[in-house]
Amino acid sequence: MDCGQQYPIDRIIYVCESCGGLLDVCHDFEAVPVSRETFDARLGSWEKPYTSGVWRYKELVYPGIPDEKIISRPEGNTPLYHVPALAGWAGVQTLYLKHEGENPTGSFKDRGMTGGLTQANILGVRRVACASTGNTSASLAAYAALGGFEGIVFFQNKQVALGKLAQAVAYGATCIQVNADFDRNMELVREAADRLGIYVLNSINPFRLEGQKTIIFETLQQLRWQVPDWIVCPGGNLGNSSAFGKALRELYDLGLIARLPRLAIIQAEGANPLYKSFRRGLNGLEPVHAETIATAIKIGSPVNYAKAVRALRWTDGVVEQVSDQEIMDAKALIDRRGIGCEPASACSLAGTAKLVRQGIIRPHETVVGILTGHILKDPEATIHYHSRQLDGIEAHYPNALLSAEPSIEAISHLLQAPRGEPSS
C-alpha cells in the first residue's frame, strides 16, 4: 500500500519485500459488475455460498473464486439493533448497534477467518496459525477444524478469558501458552511461519481484512443503503477499522454510496497507541505496554496501524480513549438491554457518549456502534463487575446476585423489596 509494488495473488507473503509495508488485496471491479440489487436479491437465499453474510458480497470480497474452495460456517447475517434507550444515555438521537458477537464462534473474527482459510485452501497449505488474545484463536480453531487444517494458536500465559481459551481447546487446535504478551506472540508466530511453512492468519494477512469489510457492507444494506453519520468501533490490532476504511472507499468509488461516514476508533486508556499517535497528528506509532480489562483489544503495537491511519484520513475520522470504568459501565447498560457484549465491544457505546460530550458527535447525528464479541466470551468480567470485585472499578449499574433461605417467606421478602433500574 506504500510503494505500489505488486505480487501475484497465489504468493504467500505478508509484507512488501521492497518497502516492508502492509499488503492490500486489489480487485478488478470493472471485470465483475456489482450493484445493490445483486446483493439485495441474495438476502434470505438458501443457495451456497450466498447463505453467508460474507460471501453474499462475493464480488467485493474475492471475485471469481470457485464456490467449492470457500470455507464457510456460514458467518455474518448479524443483527443491527436500534437502541433508543442507549441513544438517550449516549446523547444522540439515533443509535444502532451492529452485533458481530452473534457470529458462529461469537466474534467478528469469523468474517475474516472465512476469507483467510479460503485463501489457505486455494494456496494448498494445511497448517495455519495465529497469535491471539482469544477471539482470533476461537475462530481459527473452528474454521481450521471445518476445513481439515491443523490449527495452531499462540496465547499469552495470563489474562486470557476462559470463554475464548475453551473454544480453541474444544475445536482441537494446538494451543501454546507463551510467557509473553500478545505483541511478542505475534512476532513468534511470524518467525514460526517463516521457519516451518505455516500460514499466518492474524490480521496482517490481507485476506482476513477482505472478509471483515463485509461488516460495513451488511450494515449499509440493513440501513437500506442509507449512510449513517458515524461508525464507531473498538480499536486493538486495528484490523476492523482498516477493513472498514477500505470497504467504505470501495463502495464510494463504485457509486454504491454517495458519501462516506466518519469513522471513530475507540481505544482503552491502557492500550492506546493509536490514540496517542492521533493526538500527535498521526506522525508515527510508538508502542505501549498494554493493560486493560478489555482483553480483546489489549494490544500495544498494532500491526495494522498504517491501514488504520489511511482509514481515518479517508473518512475524516477521529480516535478517542475510554477508561476501564467507562467500558464496564457501558457494557452493563448494553447487557441490561438484553443484547450483551464482551468488554471491548462496549468501547463503541462509551466512546460515542464521550465524543458527544466533547461536541464532536452532534446530538442529531446517526451513529452505528460495532459490538465485536459475545457476552459469554468473558463471563468472569461480568460477574466480577456486578459483585463489585474488580479492582479500581466501581459498579455504577450493578445487578447483585441475591441469596435466600429455602422458604417462601424469605423469597417473598426479596421479591417485594424495590430494585433499581439502570439510568439508560
Any chance you could write out the topology, listing elements then pairs?
Layout: H1 36-41, H2 58-61, E1 80-82, H3 84-90, E2 94-99, H4 109-123, E3 127-132, H5 135-147, E4 150-156, H6 162-170, E5 174-178, H7 182-196, E6 199-200, H8 206-212, H9 214-222, E7 230-234, H10 239-253, E8 262-268, H11 273-279, H12 305-315, E9 318-322, H13 324-336, H14 347-357, E10 366-371, H15 379-386, H16 408-416
Parallel strand pairs: 2-10, 3-4, 3-6, 4-5, 7-8, 7-10, 8-9
Antiparallel strand pairs: 1-2
Task: Give structural attributes.
alpha/beta, 424 residues, Rossmann fold, 10 strands, four-stranded parallel β-sheet
Notes on the protein architecture:
- The strands form 2 sheets. Strands 1-2-10-7-8-9 form a 6-stranded mixed sheet, sandwiched between helices. A 4-stranded parallel sheet has the order 5-4-3-6.
- The chain has one domain: Rossmann fold.
- It has helices at residues 36-41, 58-61, 84-90, 109-123, 135-147, 162-170, 182-196, 206-212, 214-222, 239-253, 273-279, 305-315, 324-336, 347-357, 379-386, 408-416, and strands at 80-82, 94-99, 127-132, 150-156, 174-178, 199-200, 230-234, 262-268, 318-322, 366-371.
- Helix 6 (162-170) links the parallel strand 4 (150-156) and strand 5 (174-178).
- Helix 10 crosses helix 12 (305-315).
- The chain is α/β, with parallel strands linked by helices and 424 residues long.
- The chain has 16 helices and 10 strands.
- The longest helix has 15 residues, at 109-123.
- The model has no long low-confidence stretch (mean pLDDT 94).
